[in-house]
Amino acid sequence: MSTNPTSPDTSWFRSLGLGLFLHWGHASTQGWELSWQMTGGVHLQPPALEPVPVRTYFDNAPSFRPERFDPAAWAESAWRAGARYVVFTAKHHDGFAMFDTGLSDYSIAKTWGRDVTGEVVEAFRARGFRIGLYFSIVDWHHEDYPRLTDDAIAKPYRVGVYRRGTEEQWAHYRRFMLGQLEELLTGYGPIDIVWLDGEFEHSEEEWDFAGIRDFIRTHQPDALVNDRCLGHGDFTTPEQQLPVMAPDRPWETCLTMSSTWGYVPSDDTWKSPRTLLHTLIEAASMGGNLLLNIGPTDDGTFPPKAVERLETLAGWMDRHAESVHGTQAGLDLWQFHGPSTRRQLADGGERLYLHLTMRPYERITVRGVPVNRVRAARLLGTGTPLDWSVQPNLKHVHAEAADPSGELYVSVPATELDELCTVVAVDLAVAPVRVDAPAGQAA
Questions:
Q1: Which of 323, 355, 382 is the last residue in one of the domains?
Q2: CB 10 within 8 A of CB 250
Q3: What are the per-10-residue average pLDDT scores of the chain (443 residues)?
Q4: What is the domain count for the chain?
């Protein structure tokens, strides 16, 4: 339990590195984007989508029978790729519950007879994942929201333009929404993350985000809530892009592998494995996580291109996971021109991880380091020792400083480069290990 019920512990979240986001629903049977296919996407926001009539979309639910659904296989694939937390869409804006709800017949438990959310939670928890549930506070299917119709929305969707019901309908809907949220908070054991969405319809006062946050705290006091619980979030989650500067609190970037969130086979804008890996590394170098999305197919498997990317990440993680998991933000960019992370060593020293996302010319330079504390430099992936030298700051030399700062130079042979991202590990002692080493030489 949290010692302070108003401020749950976020330390475990800060260094997870990689998470798996899962957007899945009955729309996958038609290759439609989840929910947004009804609106033809969002005005001025890529990708553009071909609108599907609302009734056609809603009536598609009974066709969803993912007979090859195997959440344990999902968990194993994601774990090998380096993911350590999962966020599963228990309900998206279309209102289709991927869990066994007693408040609506519009659910996978009614159309297929299985509680998919429960099976996902059980499998991923057994593999060691932190568990997150995505829940849209919007419900375009519920009669009192009120239900979406083709003549009630702009196609494509315009943020801020939506249909309103009566005050009585809104009060009834909020009771329903909180009722479903309570089912998720009480039916699946400890939940680590409650990932809300849908804050863009209705005002902050109408939603009463303070009340929603207190409601979650009552049932899951240790759960973190994202910043879409406006004014009451525990972590920030920019979407589809890394922030220009690291937020001043825990954060993640949520990112699709292609352009769409659900399973849309016509979307062939897949990001390369290298691009995904470099995004993960850059997030970690700023002290954040990458929540990487997959939209499973209609039969319950991951798309082949998603599997290919997970396998590529797994191969790199086999050799380099130490530079991502459990690390902190690294050096400033003036010190090293690239992403970096760091960790404390058991003896009190420190290890720097220098991620070479671009090929170096002959050597790399690290500035502003305590040069007399440098103990070793090696390739993390192979353990190969690297030649290095140091140059203390001349002012520190003239002052005969015992612990001068300066520049570290590490030679990286072109033949030793990793095809995705080379990582150089530099070990620093807790105190100077050299006193009189000549400038430009290693001890």
A1: 323
A2: yes
A3: 64 96 98 98 94 98 98 98 98 98 98 98 98 98 96 92 94 98 98 97 96 98 97 97 94 98 97 98 97 98 98 98 97 96 96 96 94 97 97 92 95 95 98 64 42
A4: 2
